[in-house]
């Protein structure tokens, strides 16, 4: 699979969703939770399939990383984390324990 470079965070989220990363994921304690289904996943059940980093040169709100994540049960979703002073320390710490597999 060839990953398309995106210009904005919203473009990346929409692009991932169009390619099947439809779950909205959020950190919940020591797991990620699919907001819609309520399923929770440990770091060991997840793989970062791709990520897109935005520097925010023109818009500080775009200082983010968009992650395409796949769970061992086939659930595919998106999570967005800011970086720098706006980063969510719980999410950042959780993602350090998730394996990365980039598909280029």
In brief, what are we looking at here?
By secondary structure, the protein is α/β, with parallel strands linked by helices. It contains 2 helices and 7 strands. It has one domain: PH-domain like, CATH 2.30.29.
In the CATH scheme, the class would be: Mainly Beta
SSE order: HEEEEEEHE
Broad structural category = alpha/beta
Q: What is the share of helical residues?
A: 10-25%
CATH topology: PH-domain like
Gross morphology: globular
Residue windows where pLDDT falls under 50 for at least 5 positions? none
Mean pLDDT metric: 88
> What is the correct CATH architecture?
Roll
- First-last Cα distance: 6 Å
Please, how many domains? 1
Strand content: 35-45%
Largest sheet: 7 strands, mixed
How are strands sequenced across the largest beta sheet?
Answer: 3-2-1-6-5-4-7
Number of strands: 7
Q: Which helices and strands occur, and which strands form pairs?
A:
Layout: H1 9-18, E1 23-28, E2 31-34, E3 40-41, E4 46-54, E5 64-71, E6 76-82, H2 89-95, E7 99-100
Parallel strand pairs: 1-6, 4-7
Antiparallel strand pairs: 1-2, 2-3, 4-5, 5-6
Characteristic key phrases:
7-stranded mixed sheet, alpha/beta, 104 residues, single chain, PH-domain like
């Amino acid at each position: 699979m060839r990953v398309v470079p995106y210009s904005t965070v919203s473009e990346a989220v929409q692009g991932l969703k169009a390619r099947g990363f439809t779950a909205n994921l959020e950190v919940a304690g020591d797991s990620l939770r699919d907001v819609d289904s309520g399923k929770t996943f440990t770091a060991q059940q997840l793989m970062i399939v791709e990520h897109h980093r935005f520097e925010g040169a023109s818009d500080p709100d775009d200082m983010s990383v968009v992650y395409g994540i796949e769970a061992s049960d086939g659930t595919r979703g998106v999570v967005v984390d800011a970086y720098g002073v706006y980063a969510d320390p719980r999410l950042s710490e959780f993602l350090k324990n998730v394996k990365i597999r980039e598909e280029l």
